Amino acid sequence: xxxxxxxxxxxxxxxxxxxxxxxxxxxxxxxxxxxxxxxxxxxxxxxxxxxxxxxxxxxxxxxxxxxxxxxxxxxxxxxxxxxxxxxxxxxxxxxxxxxxxxxxxxxxxxxxxxxxxxxxxxxxxxxxxxxxxxxxxxxxxxxxxxxxxxxxxxxxxxxxxxxxxxxxxxxxxxxxxxxxxxxxxxxxxxxxxxxxxxxxxxxxx
Length: 205
What we know:
Keywords: DNA-binding. By secondary structure, the protein is an all-alpha fold. The protein is built from nine helices and no strands.
């Protein structure tokens, strides 16, 4: 059997771990289960990733990259106004949640676990920071396309939208048959546009 280097094994193990975690949950992703997913010896997993947290960290980093690429790959449509533009963008983004709930469920599991782990918390923090930047870029691009001068900092607008969208994801995971989510998404978009354009009254500066 041809030798496979550790460098070649790492992406294979990460994808195998994601497959096991997505299907059976993070708790079920033992090194034995991950090795079985690939059809390799359990010792190989330990050799490539000395500690389980190293593999978890690699999985979180891979999921961060996947989500960032997915979000960046969504076309920002040029619509007549800012709300219409971000609305079209939000609906495209929401489609990924509807079609890939297992991915978002896994991210939620890892996120909560990471917050409780001193070794994983920096990775979770970096995950959040990177996604903040992705959303900021999307809203900056939408404002440029529509010639909109944002009344609030783009970081604040993006965080406002992301917070609402993230909450809606959790609601969808808990209640996948609730068709009101689409209406809630439009309300989040409207509130975000109002904040961005200075129409949402705020008591803080």
